[in-house]
Amino acid sequence: MSEMKVSAAPESTGAESVGGAERTQMQMILSRFLRHRAAMISLVVLVLIALTAFIGPLFWKWGHTIHLDIPPNQPPSADHPLGTTTAGHDVLGQLMRGAQQTLKVAFTVSIMGTVIGSLWGAAAGYYGGRVDAIMMRVVDVFMIVPLLVMVSAVAGNAQAGTTWYAVAFIIGFFSWAQIARVVRGVVLSLREQEFVEAARAAGASPGWIIVRHLLPNAAGPIIVAATLLIAVAILLEAGMSFLQFGIQPPDISLGQMINDARTAAATRPWLFYPPGVLLVVICLTINFIGDGLRDALDPRQTMVRR
């Protein structure tokens, strides 16, 4: 009697698959993010804004400085699509330069605040006890005082807020507390996991465990918090420039453009509304991108919002 061979069906692992092949976690995260329509539209808009800000000045004949050939205080025209200022600036040239400087400040602040906050929060969560208590009291101090007050006070006293990197350093130094609190909460739930115990048993140092094991496993919340910090940095830079503590002439930022045109919103709207609208659009796109990243990185996410 011949044996009957029956091939068993492969067990389902619950992982999403394409064409019968299992996808990695990164592929599933990317797939969920790509299906988030608001995030994808926002990403495209933000990339277009960044390309215009950084590459546009190479092809536009007018820069952000005063030109004697530019007629002052002119409404939008063929030669100057967004008009000119009273001093003789081309508003489009100023807008591209302002967006460029604002984005440089925002991304620098995000990187700086994320690095400081992640290391601080991870160390506090890992060590716990008295170390955690002391480190988090420092975080509380940074969170109690409004950020705009702190950064403006430091910039005003130091008189260093004249360049984009000085402004970025000042804002970044005070913008890490929220990320530190987020990372600490994640690390508190991870430090007793088996992989951490195994690393300790293998003789790994606390610093190695924090950087090599804990922070990578907290990457999801860190990425989302870093994305949202970009929007916070943009608004802080605009507030500093509005208070005349931010980037100073002859350079320009979106906040400074809004401050310079605050009395001309009714009489010369081409000076006030372009930087104001662009500032709002950048902040909205970043928030939508952060929303999409949060949904994509959430391991419990099974449905993607349309």
TrEMBL record:
Region named Disordered: 1-20
Bilayer-crossing regions: 38-60, 105-126, 138-158, 164-183, 222-247, 270-290
GO biological process terms held by the UniProt record: transmembrane transport
Annotated ABC transmembrane type-1 domain residues: 99-290
Alphabetical UniProt keywords: Cell membrane, Membrane, Transmembrane, Transmembrane helix, Transport
Predominant cellular place of this UniProt entry's protein: membrane
Residue ranges that the Swiss-Prot or TrEMBL entry lists as coiled coil: none
Signal peptide: none
Lineage: superkingdom: Bacteria
Alphabetical list of PROSITE patterns matching this protein: ABC_TM1
Localisation: Cell membrane
Family annotation (InterPro entries): BP-dependent_transpt_permease (IPR050366), MetI-like (IPR000515), MetI-like_sf (IPR035906), OppC_N (IPR025966)
GO CC annotations on file: plasma membrane
Membrane topology of this protein: Multi-pass membrane protein
Family: Belongs to the binding-protein-dependent transport system permease family.
This protein's name: Peptide/nickel transport system permease protein
Organism of this sequence: Nocardiopsis algeriensis
Organism classification: Bacteria, Bacillati, Actinomycetota, Actinomycetes, Streptosporangiales
